[in-house]
Design brief:
Blueprint (H helix, E strand, L loop, with lengths): L1 E5 L5 H10 L3 E5 L3 H8 L10 H11 L2 E4 L10 E4 L15 H10 L8 E4 L7 H12 L4 E4 L9 H6 L4 E4 L3 H10 L1 H5 L4 E4 L1 H32 L3 H9 L20 H14 L3 H28 L8 E5 L14 H11 L3 E5 L4 H7 L4 E2 L3 H5 L4 E4 L4 H4 L3 H7 L4 E4 L6 H6 L3 E3 L5
Parallel strand pairs: 1-2, 1-4, 2-3, 4-5, 5-6, 7-8, 9-10, 9-12, 10-11, 12-13, 13-14
Helix pairs in contact: 1-3, 9-10, 9-11, 9-12, 11-12, 12-13
The chain binds 1,4-dihydronicotinamide adenine dinucleotide and uridine-5'-diphosphate-glucuronic acid (UGA).
The site of 1,4-dihydronicotinamide adenine dinucleotide has 27 residues, from helix 4.
Length: about 425
């Protein structure tokens, strides 16, 4: 099939390359010329495992190209919309200006019967509002909402082998077209839920709200653990054995960040309040507040570990991205902690396998080190803020030799406290004895 993907960021670039990998003829459209040039040259504009390979294969096959010119999408049978829907400046609502602009520039190029499939995360009611304009733009043209559930770091795998597909559609034909796009996964038995626009939009925001709630729940448990001498990791393992609860997304620590969970729960709460459900959505506001407090808790733990003040102390920060296997620093808890410790007078030296260029764009005063050894050398305190594999695998004895004072705060609760203490470290986790 001929497909276009409009918006080639973390979601769209992967979607375009993965669709070409499935054998479709794909054009990726983006307004960012540098991004289009980079993608056209086979260079992934961000770190995502597996993307360089599918990108290169797609370009080499001739089935994948990128352009800034919407006219190049005119041939497509299905247009995926993957532009950003960030938090609006000064409010919690989703900013839909990129979506509006993308749809407006696509309309004149729609061919009869074309399907526009929204993948961006939007407030419930958005598709209903756009549908009429799309239907009026070309004979038989229609809109589907087909939200995306991929995780950064696993984006290619999640796109090719998702847990489920969700189609918000108004016709069987739209569902059939999406089935044709995803034929291989559908034939392999991937569940698909065919529903209306509102439900499809809500499935996406509800899923992210649930995941965020799970994380904030366990982070509250980590506070109780700190107050009582219990261990939140053991608690999570134990409750996680109950299949109704499940162990995943019960890792207490610095909490969630990134370009999605934080802004999506805020937009969902704002939409809920608009719908007259402010009382009920108070819980989601609290999920957000608990999450942000975890960053303060870590800063407070650093102050305490350093005897009441971080001023003048050298603090090695391991990890700046919002999660491992991504270079994304949007709403990164690690970077927030770095900024706060810096404000308090600490000399923060940060390291990260892929995130430093983005971190420096957001926080130019950040002092960076290109290796873990250089970051830790001479440190009064080490803070593990993002659980990259290489930090999880650090040898406590070899690392102790580098630090001035062998003190560590494990902001992701991923190290073995006994092993680190045995190597002479003063170890603290969040909610861990
Ligand atoms: N990043 C992720 O893991 C996931 C993101 N999403 C959702 O997907 C959407 C996109 O997110 P990201 O890819 O992370 O954002 P992003 O900011 O990385 O990418 C958005 C892209 O859209 C482009 N763009 C903006 N206006 C445009 C226009 N008028 N025409 C063409 N291109 C335009 C931008 O230049 C940018 O490259 C958001 O709604 C997000 O919530 C959903 C699931 C996963
Ligand atoms: O809508 C989106 O964009 C995506 O948002 C999340 O994906 P992502 O942001 O890539 O990353 P996650 O793996 O969900 O992690 C989010 C944050 O939660 C934190 N987290 C995760 C799990 C956990 O147990 N504890 C915890 O603090 C991570 O460190 C990270 O900062 C969802 O998992 C995806 O399904 C969704 O498609």
């Amino acid at each position: 099939m001929r497909l276009s993907v409009i918006g080639c960021g973390y979601l769209g670039a992967v979607h375009a390359a993965a669709m070409a990998d499935l054998g479709h003829d794909v054009v990726g459209i983006d307004v960012d010329e540098a991004k289009v040039q980079s993608l056209s040259a086979g260079r992934a504009p961000f770190h995502e495992p597996g993307l360089p390979e599918v990108l290169e294969a797609g370009l080499a096959s001739g089935r994948l190209r990128f352009s800034t010119d919407m006219a190049d999408a005119a041939d497509a049978d299905v247009h995926f919309i993957a532009v950003g829907t960030p938090q609006t400046a000064g409010s919690d609502a989703a900013d839909l200006t990129y979506l509006e602009a993308a749809v407006a520039s696509l309309l004149p190029h729609l061919k009869p019967g074309a399907l526009v499939a929204g993948k961006s995360t939007v407030p419930v009611g958005t598709a209903e509002r756009l549908a009429e304009r799309i239907e009026a733009a070309a004979e038989g043209a229609e809109l589907a909402w087909n939200p995306e559930f991929l995780r950064e770091g696993f984006a290619v795998k999640d796109t090719l082998h998702p847990d489920r597909f969700v189609y918000g559609v108004r016709s069987q034909r739209a569902a059939d077209l999406l089935d044709d796009v995803y034929r291989q996964a559908i034939d392999a038995g991937t569940p698909r839920i065919v529903t209306d626009y509102a439900t499809a939009e809500l499935v996406k925001t509800a899923a992210n709200a649930f995941l965020a709630t799970k994380i904030s729940f366990i982070n509250v448990m980590s506070q109780v653990a700190d107050a009582t001498g219990a261990d939140v990791t053991v608690l999570a393992d134990a409750i996680g054995h109950d299949a109704r609860i499940g162990r995943r997304f019960l890792n207490a620590g610095l909490g969630f960040g990134g370009g999605c969970l934080p802004k999506d729960i805020r937009a969902f709460a704002a939409r809920g309040e608009q719908l007259g459900l402010a009382d009920s959505f108070a819980f989601l506001r609290e999920v957000d507040a608990v999450n942000l407090r975890q960053r303060e808790r870590l800063v407070a733990a650093a102050v305490e570990a350093l005897g009441g003040s971080v001023t003048g102390a050298r603090i090695a920060l391991l990890g700046v991205t919002f999660k491992p296997d991504s270079d994304d620093v949007r709403d990164s808890p690690a970077l927030d902690v770095a900024e706060r410790l810096h404000e308090l007078g600490a000399e923060v030296v940060a390291t990260d396998p892929y995130g430093l260029p983005n971190a420096l764009r957001r926080f130019p005063a950040l002092v960076t080190a290109s290796s873990t050894e250089d970051a830790v050398r001479g440190a009064d305190l080490v803070v593990l803020a993002t659980e990259w594999r290489e930090y999880r695998d650090l040898d406590p004895a070899a690392t102790a030799v580098l630090a001035r004072h062998a003190r560590i705060i494990d902001g992701r609760n991923v190290l073995d406290p006994a092993a680190w203490r045995a190597a002479g470290w003063e170890y603290r986790g969040l909610g861990r004895r």
